[in-house]
Batch of 2 targets.
Target 1
Amino acid sequence: MHRIILSISLAVSSSTTAQINNCPIVPTPIRYESHSGTHFLNGKILLDTKDAPEKAVDYLRDRLSVLYEVELLQDDTSGLSISLENVDEAAGYYSITMLPEEQTIRYGSEEGLFYAFQSLTQMIREGNHGWEINHCLIEDEPKFGWRGLHLDVSRHFFSVAEVKRFIDLMAMYKFNVFHWHLTDDQGWRIEIRKYPKLTEIGSWRDSTVHGHYSDQPRKYDIGRYGGFYTREDIREIIAFAADRNVTVVPEIEMPGHSRAALAAYPELSCTGERQPVPGLWGIFDDIYCSRSSSIEFMKDVLSEVIELFPSEYIHIGGDEVPKKRWEACEDCKKVMEENHLENVHELQSYFITQIDEFLTSKGKKLIGWDEILEGGLSPNAAVMSWRGEKGGIAAARQKHTVVMSPTTYCYFDYYQSGNKSEPLAIGGLLPLEKVYQFNPIPEALTEEERKYILGGQANVWTEYIPDFEHVEYMVYPRALALIQSLWCKEKPHYEDFLSNYLKYQEDFLDHLNVHFSRSIHDPELMLERAENGIVARLKAADPNAHFDVRIHVNSGKSSYVNAFVMGTQDSIFLERSTDSIDKIITMKITSDALNDEHVHRFLLHSDLGRPIELITPPHPKYNHNGSLTLVDGNRGAIPWKGDEWLGFREQEVSMIVDMEQLEFVDDITIGFLDDSGSWIYLPESVSVKASKNGRCWKKVNVKPPTDHNHFEGSTYRAILGVKARYLKVTVHPMEEIPAGMPGEGRIPWTFMDEIQMLKRSE
Ligand code: ACM
Ligand code: ZN
C-alpha cells in the first residue's frame, strides 16, 4: 500500500524593510518615507508650471486625465497644490515632498521631472473618498544610464499603435532605451528608399511554422504574413518615445539573420541563389557576402537609418553567423587574401570594422551582440552581452562599453513558470524571482572595468509571441523585476518587492489594462527526498494561500480519488512502489485565484527518491533540483522548461544510483530530451557498471530490448540482468554536433529527466 499523508506545520511570514514598506512605486526609490495622512484629489491637482518644461507637463496632464479623470490645473485656489523647483542635481534626480505643510517636486532636469511625474502617477490610490495620495517623502535617481527593453518585430509584426503602447508602458517604469529589432530572416520591417524591394519582397513571407519549430513533423500556417514601418511611422514612434524620455536604438542585423534582405536582393549573398523569406525559425547558412558591394549596400541602408534615428548607438546585430557560405565563396576568399585575414572569424571582424568605421565617420557608435568580439573587436564598438557574462567581461577589459543582457536573467521569451498552462514558448525558464536576481555588473570586473557597463536590458524575441497581448504577458510583471536591478542603487529583498508588488502594482497594471501574467500566483510544487519516496509541498507568492487538491491514484485495476485543502506549508508524501506495478498519481490543484486547473503527474516507480551521486555536475543553468530530478517520478515537459530536466554539457556524464539493497535488475530506462534546435541531442551510447558494495565495479553488458535499437523515441532502454546494489551509469554524448545540424562543431547538450530500474525478486 502506498500512503498519502497531509502534514500541517506553521506558516512563516516574510519580513519587510522600512524603505519599501508601503511604497507603491516601482522601481523602488532610493528613499521613501511614509508619513501619516492623505491628500484627497477631488478631481484635480494644482501644479505651479510657470518655468516647467511644457512637454513633461502636457504628458502628466494627459496621464492624470486618462487614468484618473483628474484635471491638472494651473490656477485654482483649492485642492492639492504642488510647486516645482529645478535644482542643481544630476539630470535624472527628483524628490517629492508630499506633506500637509509642503507639496514640492524638485528635479535635476526635464528627465528627472519626468521620473517624478511617473512616481506621482503611481502614488495615486483609490480610497474611500476617491483618488488620494498618501503623505510621504521621496528622493531618487537612477543607477544605470541604459535601462532597455528590446522588441523583435521581424518574427511577428506589431502595429505602430502597439509599438507606441510598448514604449508608453516601459516609460512608466522608467526604462529609457527601446531596442527595436527591425530586421531578421523572417521579415525586413523598415522602409529604405534606395532599396524598395527590401519591403516589397523582404517584409512578407508565405507561411509561418506552426507550434514549436522542433516539432516533428513540422506544420506550417500557410498565408501571407508581414508588414513594415514607413519613414513617417518611424519618425512618429521616435517622437512619441522622445516625449517619454526613451531613446530608440534601431537594429539592422548583419552579416547573419539576413534571409529577408537576401530574398529581395539575392546578389548580396555568396551564392546569389534566389530563396524566399523563410517561415521557419532558426539560424540560416545564407548570409551577406563580405564582398565590397554587400558592404556598400549595408552602408547605404545605414545612411538612411542614421537620417531617421537620432540615437547615439546603432545596433548592427552580428549574432549567430554561420561561416559555411563564406568558407566556400571565392569572393570571400579574395577579401581574406587581400586583407591578410587568417580565417572567417577575422573576416567577420573585418566586416564589422568596415561598418564601425562608417558609423564612426557619421558621428554614431556601433553596438552589436557579443559575437562581434570573435576575430577581434573593432575599435569603437560597444558590446551587448547575451551569451552569459563572458562577452561583457571581455569587452569591458578591452575598454569597450557594454550592455548586459544575459539569457539567464534577461530573455523574456523564456517560460515564466513551470506550469503546463503557460503558452508555448521557445524553452528555458525565467521566473520573476530569477529576473530579480540580475546584476548587470559581473563580479569578475574590477572597479575600473565596471565603469564600462552602461546598464542592461531584456530581450523580447517573438517567434512564439504572435500578438501584442502575448507580448504584454511575457514582459509584465518581469519588466518590473528587471527595472529594480537597473534603477535601484540598492534593491530591496525579493520577498519585500514581491509583497509590495502584490499590494500595489497588480492593481496598477490592471488599471493600465495591461495583459500581464499572473503566473506567480500559481502554486509551484517543491519536491524533496523522504524515506521510501518523496515529499511534495506547494509554494506560492502568498505564503498563506490555500488550494483545493484532488489526487487521483491509478494502479492498473483500481482507481480512487482523495480530495482536500492544502496550504503552502502542508506536504504530501508519495511512497515509491514496492512491486513492479506502475502506480500513477495525478494531482489536480485548483483555487479561486487560479484560472486553470494545474495538473501534475507522478509515476511512483520503485526508484522514486533513491540516492544518486552525480559524478558529473549538471550545468548550473539546468540544475533546478539536483539529482532528485532523475528520480522524482515526473517526466520533463516538451517543449522543455528549465526545471524538469537536468542539463549537462560534457563529453561524458556519470552518476551512481544507489538502490539501497541488493536487487536483481532486469532492465534500465532513462529519459532523454531530443531538441536539436536548442543544441540538445540524444547520446550516442550509455554504459553501465554494477557493484554490490560501491567499491568493486563490474562492467555490465547492456543489450537493447529489441534486435536493433536502445531508443524508443527519446527513451533509452537496456537489458542488464545483473545483481547489484549500485549502478554506475555513464552517458556518452556525441563528441561534437555533426555538420549541417544546429550548433554544428560544438559539444551537444545532454538533458535527462528520469531513471528507472525494473527489478525482479529471485
Ligand atoms: C540573440 O539572442 N541571438 C542575440
Ligand atoms: Zn561571399
Note: Residues 344-361 form the longest helix (18 residues).
Target 2
Amino acid sequence: MRKTAPDRLPTHVAIIMDGNGRWAKQQKLRRVEGHKVGIDSVREITETTCDLGIPYLTLYAFSKENWSRPKEEVRMLMFLLGLYLEQELPMMMDRGIRFNIIGERGDFSKSLQAQFDDVMRKTARNRNLVLTIALSYSGRKEIIRSVRLLCEDVINGRVRRIDERAFRRHLYSPAIPDPDFLIRTSGEMRLSNFLLWQVAYTEIYVTDILWPDFRKQAFLDALAEFAKRDRRFGNVKDF
Ligand code: FPP
C-alpha cells in the first residue's frame, strides 16, 4: 500500500465532508454516531494536511441549509462542534494550526460564538496551517454579502472601480487563496453551495468513500490524483 505523498501538492484543499448519515445507516447506528466518527476523520485529515506542509485546509461542516434538519440532529451537531473545539485546541496549539471560520457566525448561540472567538484568538499566531471550518455557510450568501459591502464602498467613495479585487476584499476570508483542490466524499457530483466564487479554477475530486471512512490513505490517493491533473486555467499547453 502506498504511504508516501505525491511530489506536487495543492496549496489549499477544500473538502465537502458528506456521508455521515449513510455511514451510520450502514452500521445500523443513529445518524449522530456518523457525525461523531466524522470528527475522527476531521482530526486525521487535519493532522495529515499539517504533516504534509499544505498551508490551507477548509472543511464544510455546516451549511446554511443544514439548520432545517431535524431539531435533535441540529442540537447534537452544535454539541459536537463545542466538544470538537474544546478537545482539539491542544492539538491545534501543538501543531501550529490557526483556526478560522467562514459563514454566518451570528447564527450560533452566544456561548458557541464565545468559543469560536476564544479558539481563534488563542491560535491566531500559529503559522503551520490555516484550518477554516465553514459554519452556517452559503456560497450564494457570501457573494451577495460581498456585493452589498462593495456597493457601500462605492456609495461612500472608497471604491471607484468594481472589479474582482474589490469584490474579493469582502469575502469572509479574503487573504486565503482560492482552493486548488476540492474533495467531496460519498459520491455526489455537486457543489452544494460551497465556495462558489472561489472554485472557479479548482480541480474537483469525488470519491465514493463516506466521510467517516475517509482517512489518511484515501486522502493521499486523492492528492496523488491531483498531482496528475493538468491545470491550464483556460489556457492551452501545446499548440
Ligand atoms: C454530511 O453528512 C455531514 C454534515 C452535514 C456535517 C459534517 C460534520 C462533521 C464531520 C462532524 C462535525 C464537524 C466538526 C468540525 C465539529 P450527512 O449527514 O449529510 O450524511 P448523509 O448525506 O449520508 O445523510
Note: Residues 17-22, 35, 38-39, 42, 61, 66, 80-81, 84, 133, 211 surround farnesyl diphosphate (CB under 6 Å).
